[in-house]
Amino acid sequence: MGERIIHGRIDRSGALVSADAPLLRLQQRAGAGIGKPLALPHLARLVALAQRLQRDISRPLYAADDHSDIHALVRVLPDEEGANLEISDWRASAVTVPQMPPVAETAVRPRSWSWECDQQLRVVALREGRDAPPIPEDWEACSLSELFELQPDEEGGFPVLRALARQSSFEGQRVRADGSGDARVAMVLTGEPLFDATGRFTGFRGTAIVEEPTQSEPNHVPNGGALVDPAFGSLPLSDPQFGRRIDGALRGPLSRIIATAETISGQFDGPIRADYARYAGDIAHAGRHLLGLVDDLADLQNIERPGFKAAADEIDLGDLARRAVGLLGMKAEEKGIRIDAPRTDDKMPATGEFRRVLQVLLNLLGNAIRYSPENSQIWIRVDREGDRAKITVADQGQGISSEQQAVVFEKFERLGRTDSGGSGLGLYIARRLARAMDGDLAVESAPGQGARFTLSLPARDVD
Amino acid sequence: MAESFSSPGIDLPSPTLSARLGELAVFLAAPTAGRLTEEQRALSLGIARRLVAAVADELDPGIDGDALWRDWLAAGVPAAERLTTVCFARAEEHRWREYSAQRVTTPIPLEGVEEEAPVASDIPSDIDRAYLALQIADRRRFDSYGNPCVAPADVDTGLFRALLLDIAAWRLARVAKDGKLAADLGEAVRAATEGRDAGAGIDRAAKAYHDLLAGQGKLADAATAAITRHDWVTVIALSAVAARRPYVDTALALLSAEAAVLPFLLAPLKLDRAALAPLEASLALLPGRAVSGGAGDG
């Protein structure tokens, strides 16, 4: 039964116009039938959501009749005339409730908690599903970020906070929560926004699903996020355990600091004095900076590993420049900085590892934005010189003296700057990466004249 | 009641026949009254099943809830009459909220908004905390899959004790006569009854919220706002406390009331008549409502 797909069709008015037997039976047990509005509220809500978003959605479906609870996975595919339903993994568990001992067939169900919070992210419901870790005590009214230690996504952001600002649904928010005993359990949160009849946002409702453990990343980690030994500093950089220990020892606590500081700064638990909110914002900012440093250190450990070699992808420096501008354009706009990027038809084929070249460009462009005066301009140019493809990032900042140019690519060199802008590792890593791709990174500058960083890579001939 | 459907001199040979005759007698007594829909029956039974399992769990987590419900369905649920009101009220309330929620149009997500939270406009007050507690008490009335249930804390002591005793009797019969188990079960019933914080559920949360609002003269405003938001839990909770009735009774009264009766039911809240319009409209749109004369069927 688990592999069979049950089909159904909903018309534009929300009526069930066709259905395979199990779905039809459920509709009939709910007092309706073919041609009648879908009488399964949960499913009807999913259909309405898919139609509103006009995109496919897949969700677990829970329904109940008088003698069983039904669990399935439903996929809703909306179109102009209504929506198609594809229901798989249909399981009817007779007269069982979550508190009862599990029966064999339920072992494959996702292990999850369901939760709900109000508009200030205070938890109002937390329930454990079958086979799920026990829910923590004292969850009532505590902050969502207190209950779940939010982990940043690849861009360093938090899907739940983005969703809160946009009052939209979210998924893929990785968290850690208290499990049984001292262990913490890795979970993934998804949530749907809730609104009242006046259209006012009233909170989120969602699930927290236990992440399946992988060999490299067990889902239970010792309490506090420290994987093994926080004294990772005693390890040489070449130790292959180093990066992983950094992740465990620093990333977890830092993520928690950032999430908590953002919660305070955002005043989710109620207003606080404006200066305190600003301090919390500063803490979050500093936390992100430290997280960036952790990333840099992990990168450093990686590229200094003997035999490190970047991939030789076929890339277009013009395209990569435009991508970098797309990612950092907002930051530049905040300072009124205009970026003159290569035009769409400006191509410069080269060979290098796509993501590493993008990383280098983001570093160069990020520095240019950070150290340029407000309302200035940054230029990005692509060019070819013999067998070298080049991309140059030039700014109107205060420039770098020849003495400083000699050390700017050194490890932890920040040219005497004391702000929280960077780790002093970015340019060192960027040059190491450039050289690992058979290229180089150079700087030309003079005090008061801005700086020009040029990344050169092997050019690629295109027919 | 039994006399009305057992013909004198006939021994009814099976509970099924007895039930059918009973059903027919009830039908004949009120032929035009609307009957339970499948949805209402399914919801009420599901709620009863979950309540029985929850109480059994409080008595002894080792009790096989599946087997208990199976046996009770076969032989008849012992506390059926006492369960009926509480389960049906919860089922109807759930139906109302679900149908009402379906009609709420979800706003389009805000685009281009930065990752930044809105700033709360009021200092969290006692009222705010009491409202939060009411929400938490309400959400305890759902199981882990979002199915409606009745929290044991919301059940009156009489029903709770009756269920405990019936479950203990079933357990004892199932494991044969065992003096020690009987004593243990008796002790478990006593401990569960005495350790129970009666009324700790939604009624207490409702009273705390109501009293704070009333103390600050904000009761009518809060109730009006709740009606506007279609926050029916709050509407039921506030009107229940204002009328000094249990939440479950008030829910059933509202759900089975004709529109003309609503102002009287909600009179203690001192609401403007116009404020009741969304409530009347929402109830009118709920199909299969048990109003007088079956007017709500539809």
- Write down the CATH topology of the largest domain in chain A: Heat Shock Protein 90
Count the domains of chain A: 4
Mean residue pLDDT of chain B: 83
Shape verdict of chain A: elongated
Poorly predicted regions of chain A are: 94-109, 220-238
Amount of beta strand of chain A: 25-35%
Instruction: Provide the structure class of chain B.
Output: mainly alpha
* Topology, number of strands of chain B: 0
Tell me the greatest interface.
A-B, 67 and 66 residues
**Which CATH architecture of the largest domain in chain A is right?**
2-Layer Sandwich
Summarize the biggest pleated sheet of chain B: none
Q: Please identify which CATH superfamily of the largest domain in chain A we are dealing with.
A: Histidine kinase-like ATPase, C-terminal domain
Looking at how many chains there are and whether they match, the oligomeric state comes to heterodimer
Our measurement of the CA-to-CA distance between the termini of chain B, rounded to an integer number of angstroms, reads: 30 Å
Look at the helices and sheets of chain A and give the structural class: alpha+beta
Order of helices and strands of chain B: HHHHHHHHHHHHHH
Average pLDDT of chain A, rounded to a whole number, is 77
Spans where pLDDT lies below 50 across 5 or more residues of chain B:
1-6, 112-122, 294-298
Helix content of chain A: 25-40%
Largest sheet of chain A: 7 strands, antiparallel
